[in-house]
Design goal:
- This protein is an alpha/beta fold.
- It has a single domain (about 5-295), classed as Spore Coat Polysaccharide Biosynthesis Protein SpsA, Chain A, CATH 3.90.550.
- Helices cover about 25% and strands about 20% of the residues.
- The protein contains seven helices and 15 strands.
- It has helices spanning about 15-30, 45-55, 75-85, 115, 180-190, 195-205, 255-260, and strands at about 5-10, 35-40, 65-70, 95-100, 100-105, 120-125, 135, 140, 150, 155-160, 180, 215-220, 225, 265, 285-290.
- Strands 3-2-1-4-11-6-12-10-9 form a nine-stranded mixed beta sheet. A two-stranded antiparallel ribbon has the order 5-13.
- The radius of gyration is 18 Å and the shape is globular.
- The termini are far apart.
C-alpha cells in the first residue's frame, strides 16, 4: 500500500497567496498530491478571488487533487473535524499548511521523508534546517540543535524536548508545514478547543507530553511563511501567537486580491530567499501576469 499524505490548507481572504502556495507545491514536490483547502472570505471581492482561483487552477496543477471547502456556519472546528474524517482510510500522514507559505526549494529524497517518521519521531518539518536561527514573532535568536545526520546527510534529527519555547526546534506542533502520522495528530486534536488556525496551534502546543521525542527536517528549510499581512485577530492572549507582521514588508490582503483579480500573480521563483533564517520572513514579493505562467 502506498503511503499518502492528506494536506489541509487554511486560507482566509488570500486567494493570490493561496495560488502561489499551490503552484510552489506543484513545482517543487511530488508527495503533496491531495490538497484539502478550508477557506473563508469576508466580502464579495474575496469570494470573487476564490471563485477565480477555483475556476482556473485545475489547468495548471498537474496531477494534484484539490478540494475546496468553504467554512460554513458550523464553524472552523466542526468543519476541520469533518475534513479530518473525510476519506480517512486513504491516508497514513497528515500535514497542515497556511496560505501565506511558499515551498521555495525542491524536495530531494522525497521518497524517504515518510519512511523517516519512525516510532520515536513526532514529525518531519519542512520549515526547519540549519539555516533557521531567528524567531520573527519574538525578535530573538536561538542556537541550532545538535543533530544526528540521516540519509547520507539529507535529513537531520534532534530531540525537540531539549529545546524550550524560545527555539523553533523545540516547537513541534504547528499548522505550517510539519508532517505527522495521521493517528498521532488526530488523537491530539479531537479533545481540543479552538476556533481558528491560530488557536488550534496554541491548543496543540500545550500537548507537549506527547510520547515522541524527535523531529526531523532537511539540512536547509524548504518552506517559509511570509508574514506581510494579518487576517486573524481573535487570539491575543499570548503574544507568541499574536501574528506579528508587516514590519519590513506590508502588503494587505486586499491589495493582493485586487492584483489577482486584475491578472497579477506572485512570481515566487524570482524572489530572493538567500536571507531566510526564520520560519517567518518578510520577503518582498515579485509579480507577473498570469499568461506568463505558461511560458
Amino acid at each position: 500500500m502506498n503511503k499518502k499524505i492528506k494536506t489541509i490548507i487554511f486560507s482566509k481572504n488570500r486567494p493570490n497567496q493561496l495560488e502561489c502556495l499551490i503552484r510552489s507545491l506543484n513545482d517543487n514536490s511530488t508527495i503533496f498530491n491531495d490538497l484539502y483547502i478550508l477557506y473563508k472570505f469576508t466580502n464579495e471581492e474575496y469570494k470573487e478571488g476564490y471563485d477565480k482561483l477555483k475556476s482556473q487552477i485545475y489547468a495548471s496543477i498537474g496531477e494534484r487533487r484539490i478540494y475546496f471547502y468553504e467554512e460554513n456556519e458550523e464553524g472552523f472546528k466542526n468543519n476541520l473535524n469533518e475534513l479530518l474524517q473525510l476519506n480517512r482510510e486513504k491516508y497514513d500522514y497528515l500535514c497542515f499548511m497556511v496560505d501565506d507559505q511558499i515551498m521555495y526549494q525542491k524536495l530531494e529524497d522525497e521518497d524517504k521523508i515518510l519512511d523517516s517518521i519512525s516510532d520515536d519521531v513526532l514529525c518531519f518539518s519542512l520549515r526547519l534546517g540549519y539555516n533557521i536561527n531567528y524567531r520573527h514573532l519574538t525578535d530573538s535568536y536561538f542556537p541550532c540543535p545538535m543533530c544526528e545526520n540521516l540519509m547520507n546527510g539529507s535529513f537531520i534529527k534532534w530531540n525537540w524536548r531539549e529545546y524550550g519555547m524560545e527555539s523553533d526546534f523545540g516547537y513541534p506542533f504547528t499548522v505550517d508545514g510539519n508532517i505527522y502520522k495521521y493517528e498521532d495528530i488526530l488523537n491530539l486534536i479531537s479533545p481540543l478547543k479552538y476556533t481558528n488556525p491560530n488557536t488550534l496551534e496554541a491548543s496543540l502546543y500545550i500537548q507537549i507530553n506527547f510520547p515522541k521525542n524527535y523531529m526531523i527536517s532537511y539540512e536547509h528549510s524548504k518552506m517559509v511563511n511570509l508574514p506581510i499581512n494579518r487576517v486573524q485577530e481573535s487570539y491575543k492572549l499570548n503574544p507568541m501567537f499574536n501574528n506579528k507582521f508587516g514590519l519590513k514588508v506590508n502588503i494587505s490582503e486586499k491589495e493582493l486580491n485586487d492584483k489577482f483579480l486584475n491578472g497579477e500573480i506572485i512570481d515566487y521563483e524570482k524572489m530572493d530567499y538567500s536571507g531566510v533564517n526564520s520560519c517567518h520572513c518578510e520577503l518582498p514579493l515579485v509579480f507577473k501576469k498570469e499568461y506568463e505562467n505558461n511560458k
